[in-house]
Write a structure and sequence with these properties.
Strand order of the largest sheet: 5-6-4-14-15-16-13-17
Order of helices and strands: EHEHEEHEHEEHEEEEEHEEEEHHEEEHH
CATH architecture of the largest domain: 3-Layer(bba) Sandwich
Radius of gyration: 21 Å
Distance between the termini: 36 Å
CATH superfamily of the largest domain: FAD/NAD(P)-binding domain
Bound molecules: flavin-adenine dinucleotide
Helix content: 25-40%
Largest sheet: 8 strands, mixed
Number of helices: 10
Number of strands: 19
Shape: globular
Structural class: alpha/beta
Length: about 375
């Protein structure tokens, strides 16, 4: 295995390119956007979501991903893209609180760093939050959580791959695949083509289109999500990740606040980031962080989550299209370090990784979503879009 073409310069493309290039593979990254992380990885909430994941094997994989972020950030770029911060979460109403407790107890049972606390803990962990915004008697604290500057993560990994000889081509859309004897042997773009021993499909929400060029289908749906980013919060900064009922908040690298709401996302279909949704998100965020009244929305981005139908990653080649290796996942910011490493090892050694066995793209995909935060999303969406 000497050469690889990686389609897509998001978190997954960057991680697998880094590991392949380090292993001595000649890597060419082909990206239709004009810069790295121009797709979903540039419009994401990008926190460590390990605590939400079931079943246990998938939880373990996410935990490994979060741990490998720490190791990678220590070896590559200091702590620049990984920002440790406690996650404080509370719910409205008995049923929602019971669900929160159950999840926390499950996480504790799995050895996750998690505790119950009185709401007064917000004064210490997130003093910018209005105490009146939390009507619950109890909050859940995940002390070892983190948020990630995903675009910086992508740039750092691609730069590291470049130091091992990887080339990246931006503004180039892959429009077809070349094949010989049934095997995928390269990619075709307008006026250009590249041959390789393997093509790695890291095209995120565009991954099923790449698969279709080889005559195979990926069980994938696209779920839009909106994030708003403010200019710096005046006075007390936000020092925690906050998961309040119907609004999630986290700090940004520039001292502002990033906001996301599954409720707002559920009504996004067809909307764009200039409709009323960003203002609605900012209003909800301001009810938790009063200081936001003195900020303005600096940016509003809609990202498209690439969501495999059962919520679990799609990793590996399909027998009907050898030479085309798929690497597609929701929650891929958390998972990218471990998925990129394991995928590169499989590709270079030809030995299947047991950790990836549950995630083969040609597995039977049941109707029900296994990923807990996607189940929450589906409950809110009137009809889950295909
Ligand atoms: C609102 C929102 C919140 C989220 N929150 C979290 C979170 O808290 N934690 C978490 O872990 N995950 C989260 N996610 C999910 C996570 O962001 C995605 O799973 C991840 O960014 C996907 O990365 P990727 O590399 O697979 O895809 P992308 O980042 O989309 O990269 C794929 C790239 O492929 C390129 N491409 C596509 N087609 C072609 C083609 N034909 N030719 C060339 N290039 C092509 C695209 O331009 C794109 O740059 C969230 C997502 C959204 C939208």
């Amino acid at each position: 295995m000497d050469s690889a073409v990686v389609v897509g310069a998001g978190v997954l493309g960057a991680c697998v390119s880094h590991h392949l290039a380090r292993a001595g593979v000649r890597v060419v990254v082909v990206e239709e956007g004009v810069r790295p992380a121009g797709g979903t990885s540039g419009a994401t909430f990008s926190t460590d979501v390990t605590h939400l994941k079931t079943p246990y094997t998938y939880y373990r994989l996410n935990r490994q991903g979060a741990e490998e972020h720490r190791l990678l950030s220590e070896t590559l770029d200091g702590p620049a893209w990984r920002h440790p911060a406690p996650l404080v979460q509370w719910a409205d109403g008995d049923a929602a609180h019971r669900a929160l407790r159950e999840r926390a107890l499950r996480a504790m049972g799995w050895g996750h760093d998690c505790r119950f606390a009185a709401p007064s803990v917000l004064r210490e962990l997130a003093p910018a939050v209005d105490p009146a915004a939390c009507a619950a008697d109890e909050v859940v604290v995940y002390d070892s959580a983190a948020w990630f500057d995903a675009p910086r993560f992508v740039r750092t990994l691609l730069d590291a791959a470049g130091r091992h000889g990887a080339e990246a081509h931006y503004g180039v859309a892959v429009t077809g695949l070349t094949r010989a004897g049934g095997r995928v042997t390269g990619v075709v773009a307008v006026a250009r083509s590249w041959s390789a021993d393997v093509v790695v499909n890291c095209a995120g929400p565009g991954a099923d289109r790449i698969a279709s060029f080889a005559g195979v289908r990926l069980p994938l749906r696209r779920v839009p999500g909106l994030v708003t980013e403010t200019d710096p919060l005046p006075g007390t900064p936000l020092t925690a990740i906050v998961a309040a009922p119907d609004i999630d908040l986290r700090p940004t690298p520039g001292g502002g606040v990033l906001a996301l709401s599954w409720d707002v996302d559920a009504r996004l279909d067809g909307a764009d980031a200039t409709d009323g949704a960003p203002r609605e998100l900012h209003r909800r965020a301001g009810a938790v962080l009063p200081g936001l009244a003195r900020t303005r929305i600096e940016d509003a981005r809609i990202g498209v989550r690439p969501v495999p139908r059962d919520g679990l990653p799609l990793v590996g080649a399909m027998p009907r299209a050898p030479g085309l290796y798929h690497l597609v996942s929701h929650s891929a910011v958390t998972l990218a370090p471990v998925l990129g490493r394991l995928a590169a090892r499989e590709i270079t050694t030809g030995r299947p990784a047991t950790e990836l066995a549950p995630y083969r793209p040609d597995r039977a995909v049941p109707g029900g979503v296994q990923d807990e935060n996607l189940r929450a999303m589906d409950r809110r969406r009137p009809a889950a879009s295909p």
